[in-house]
Amino acid sequence: MRLDVGALASLPPAVQRPSYDIDAQKAGIVHFGIGAFHRAHQAVYTDDAMNAGERDWGITGVSLRSVNVAEQLRPQEGLYTVASRSGGESALRVIGAVRGLLVAPQEPQAVVEAVAAPETHIVSFTVTEKGYCRAGDGSLDPSLAGDDSIYYFLRAGLALRRESGLPGLTLLSCDNLAHNGAQLRRLTLAYLSSRDSALADWVEAHCTFPSSMVDRIVPATTASDRDTAQASLGGVRDEAHVTTEPFSQWVIEDRFAGPRPRWEAHGAELVADVASYETAKLRMLNGAHSALAYIGLMHRHDFVHQAVADPAIRPLVERLMREEAAPSIAAAPGQDLAAYAGALLARFENTALHHRLIQIAMDGSQKIPQRWLETLAINAEKGRRCPAILTAIGAWLAHVRGDNGPVDDPLSAQLSALWRRADAAATARAIFMRDGPLAGRWRPDDADIAAIAGAVSPTGRAPNSRTALRSKSGVAPT
Ligand code: CS2
Hints:
- The protein has helices spanning 36-40, 42-51, 68-73, 108-116, 150-163, 180-193, 197-206, 223-232, 275-298, 304-309, 314-325, 337-348, 357-361, 364-381, 387-401, 412-421, 424-432, 446-455, 466-472, and strands at residues 27-32, 58-63, 80-86, 89-95, 98-103, 122-125, 170-173, 212-215, 242-244, 249-253, 269-271.
- By secondary structure, it is α/β, with parallel strands linked by helices.
- It folds into 2 domains: 5-271, Rossmann fold; 275-473, Orthogonal Bundle (N-(1-d-carboxylethyl)-l-norvaline Dehydrogenase, domain 2), CATH 1.10.1040.
């Protein structure tokens, strides 16, 4: 039996399920990027709000490209399960918050109408770093912002709202970008002002763009996760299942244009300024994650929990968080960065989550600036060296050379062309200096370049033999 509203009654009693009338909810939120992260994060907070009696906060999920999620969720009337796992513990619940699915390339007008609907108050986004269509200098790249981008749908939907005399919207970025709300605002206004400056003025006056820090580790769902869930669901099959960790955090700048769910009653924090939380999360959690990914892959690991347990890798990751990232952050009163680093290590060690390093390694060119380069620039200004991040950059260079297989990155062709023409040191210079694709505030000096080049293995293999590394990290050779 497939999961749907009719199947709810036959689920085992331990499985938590929506207590509200699922069919009676209007959609107050349109969400772009209805992938596993959103379904394990914002949708859960929203489901909590609806369980507590708030009405009409259903989510219309938009996929900008793939039909997969819509195909999984439509036959299930939008229902799916979230398992949170740690050690031997696993809790399973059904989420009912997603009330509609749209696949943008198939039904673009329906997406525009959803943005323009009177009951819509919030449009939110998890479209990944590259979904913001930025050029290397952070400005809007018009060649990327086409009719398949968020900006196209925002423009058409917001224009309809304005013509109909409807109120503005809260446009809420939930992606791992520094100052994500401010960036979304700047990029959206840049897109609109070259096409419809009156609409840009209306958006400035009527819409808000809160920044937010989102955090929950959500590995891509595997067939085995679905089978495990099915066993716990008394045989009911959920093709849209998501497995995640118990931890979840959401810090949101309290700047809404209209009504919103009381997410703060369910664990979210509404604050005046998210910057210190966002910076700590990007430079410590995500910075460590990317280092684990590239260094771990170089050492032939598959998963985060294996890489963090490897004595050849762990000290580097600790150093990156505690001695390189943490000193670059202006902590808010009461924000304890040492305790944060400890908590992150414990989360990375969660063996119940099979979080693939290759998943994190994706799109490195879009992630590295906010995860590593800001830290490097701030430390360089203070005369402090960052050997851990430089080692991680060396491992990233090896990754984009192709050492770990095909490279999933929008700049992969450009990066591999730079490698073909040069050795490791010259490639690093070409990427980070002058008009290189990641040139910016951080300018490496000769010692930095030497450290990066020294971390790239010349042969394309791990610095030690695979068997030796595997046995060291306690993982059996395959
Ligand atoms: C990860 C993030 O894939 C990645 O790049 O670093 O998705 C990470 O798991 C989340 O930001 C955790 O909140």
